[in-house]
Design goal:
The chain has 253 residues and is α/β, with parallel strands linked by helices. The protein folds into two domains: 190 residues, 2-enoyl-CoA Hydratase, Chain A, domain 1 (Alpha-Beta Complex), CATH 3.90.226; 57 residues. Helices cover 53% and strands 16% of the residues. The protein has twelve helices and nine strands. Strands 1-2-3-4-6-9 form a six-stranded mixed β-sheet, sandwiched between helices. Strand 2, helix 1 and strand 3 form a beta-alpha-beta unit. The termini are far apart. InterPro entries: ClpP/crotonase-like_dom_sf, Enoyl-CoA_hydra/iso. This is Enoyl-CoA hydratase. It holds the Pfam family ECH_1.
């Protein structure tokens, strides 16, 4: 299966695995979509890591297959179905090598934290082939400063890992060998928290940018009340949880 999915504790791992460049086929988009739904429905999976097998994250779609699909117009656009899903759990990308086309689309739209190995090369080369528009699909101008977004979108240049960090496309740069393990380290740190709090915080991050100030405050109040109800229904308090966790962590030191 070219898009592999498995659990490591409370962390789900998606691995793009299709040849040297990890090109996406229509079948792979469908596999990714169905595995993604499995991740969302599984309360044991609190956070996910998205990575590529071998030397590359993904260089995008298999263009030969994409051309055939466009001509036939018979296949469902599984990538669109996936990207239009409401995401309630955080995802982290571990990027080595090429991250282009559909690869960078998935990274930008599905992951909240991004770790890049030193070999990572990110970009939007489609403009050189007469196919613009990917910067709009990824809402690039919202994710990073406008001048960086314009440069990437209009030049088609592929930037290295350090430049990607300077452009705010990734959080950290590590060696290639440490990229996945660092992503897993962050994922496990997140997974230590109660799932309801993780979902609430992620929802607040996403909704907060779309609401007015008063709307964001009202939404936060509603979230607080819902979490309090959850703790009361579970028969414990957030304060007790924090004390128990602190005691447990002290015991490990």
């Amino acid at each position: 299966m070219p898009v592999k999915y498995h659990l490591e504790g409370n962390v789900a791992v998606f691995t793009i695995d299709n040849g040297k460049l990890n090109l996406f086929t229509m079948e792979m988009h469908e596999q990714f979509y169905r595995s993604y739904l499995q991740f969302m429905d599984d309360d044991n999976a609190k956070v996910a890591v998205l990575t590529g097998a071998g030397e590359n994250f993904s260089a995008g779609d298999d263009l030969k297959e994409s051309d055939t699909e466009i001509k036939s117009r018979k296949n469902l656009r599984w990538d669109e179905l996936l990207l239009n899903q409401r995401r309630t759990k955080p995802m982290i990308s571990a990027i080595n090598g090429w991250c282009l086309g559909q690869g960078i689309v998935y990274s930008l739209l599905l992951t909240d934290i991004r770790i890049a190995g030193t070999s990572a090369r990110l970009g939007f080369p489609e403009i050189a082939y007469g196919m613009g528009g990917i910067s709009g699909a990824t809402r690039l101008g919202i994710q990073i400063p406008a001048v960086h977004a314009a440069y990437l979108a209009l030049t088609g240049e592929k930037i290295n890992a350090q430049q990607a960090k300077e452009y705010f496309l990734v959080n950290e740069v590590t060696s290639d060998g440490e990229c996945f393990s660092r992503a897993m380290e962050i994922a496990n740190q997140i997974a230590r928290h109660p799932l309801i709090a993780i979902k609430t915080e992620l929802d607040g991050l996403h909704r907060g940018t779309e609401l007015s100030r008063s709307g964001a405050l009202q939404h936060a109040t509603e979230q607080y009340i819902n979490q309090r109800k959850w703790h009361l229904a579970a028969g414990h308090s957030a304060v007790e949880d924090l004390k128990n966790r602190s005691s447990s962590e002290k015991g490990k030191k």
